[in-house]
UniProtKB/TrEMBL annotation:
Keywords: Signal
InterPro entries in UniProt: Ig-like_fold, PapD-like_sf, Periplasmic_pilus_chap, Pili_assmbl_chaperone_N
PANTHER family with a match to the protein in the record: PILUS ASSEMBLY CHAPERONE, SLR1668 PROTEIN
Domain Pili assembly chaperone N-terminal: 33-146
GO BP term (any one): cell wall organization
Protein name: Pili assembly chaperone N-terminal domain-containing protein
Length: 227
């Protein structure tokens, strides 16, 4: 069991050489079966040296304080290749398929972490310098089949209140909010609300967001969603 709070984890090693790479996408939504139970990651090595990466899967739960608790769950996914050597300025596609429980009652959250492996060549470099091995933590939301996401919204004391009463995660990044105050109205997207979170609201969760200045006098809000 492990606990993580950061999305990018840095581990201090022994030589000054930062390997740079990019992972896309950082968030994916799956269903337990069918075409929507699979996806992929594209990893680009933007650095000047070859890197070796491996994928590790953790199921996410939350403690009483809302902190993530990670339990290794590699058997819940098939990831091909599980490990790859990527040349400098090259890229590699990792294909991912969910193999876990098909009878889940609501969305389950997983982290797929790409860990950079230290090679024997790395250990032969000078011992008086510092090396950073960069791990990227991505997130997959796995939901029941044909689960319809749903949220409700209201305004209270200058804040937007969003609640997810459904059994599956709701992607707020695809949603627009129409705020109104009397005869005037304005439509804002998730990014316009200046929220620090990623925009995925889990089942039975509520999020409270301070209204931006341009809609602070709004009395009503209407969701214009993609679902």
């Amino acid at each position: 069991m492990k606990r993580f709070c950061a999305h990018i984890l840095l581990f201090l090693m022994v030589s000054f050489n930062v390997s740079a790479y990019q992972v896309s996408p950082m968030f994916q939504t799956f269903e337990v079966a069918g075409k929507a139970s699979q996806g992929s990651y594209e990893i680009s090595n933007t650095g000047s040296q070859e890197i070796i990466l491996q994928a590790v899967v953790y199921q996410v739960s939350f403690d009483s304080l809302g902190n993530e608790v990670l339990n290794e769950s590699d058997d819940d996914f098939l990831i091909l290749p599980p490990q790859s050597k990527i040349a400098a300025q090259a890229s590699q596609r990792f294909r991912v398929r969910y193999l876990g429980d098909a009878l889940i009652p609501q969305t389950i959250v997983y982290r797929v972490i790409f860990e950079q492996i230290k090679t024997s060549d790395d250990s032969e470099e000078g011992s008086g310098s510092v090396q950073f091995m960069v791990n990227f933590s991505t997130m997959i939301f796995v939901s029941p089949m044909n689960c319809k996401p749903e949220v409700t919204s209201s305004i209270s004391n200058g804040s937007l209140i969003i609640n997810n009463p459904s059994s599956c995660v709701y992607d707020l990044n695809l949603t627009r909010f129409e705020f109104s105050s009397g005869l005037l109205s304005e439509s804002l997207g998730w990014a316009d609300l200046n929220v620090e979170t990623a925009g995925y609201l889990l089942p039975s969760r509520t999020q409270k967001i301070k209204l931006p200045k341009q809609v602070v006098d709004s009395k009503k809000v209407k969701i214009i969603g993609p679902y």
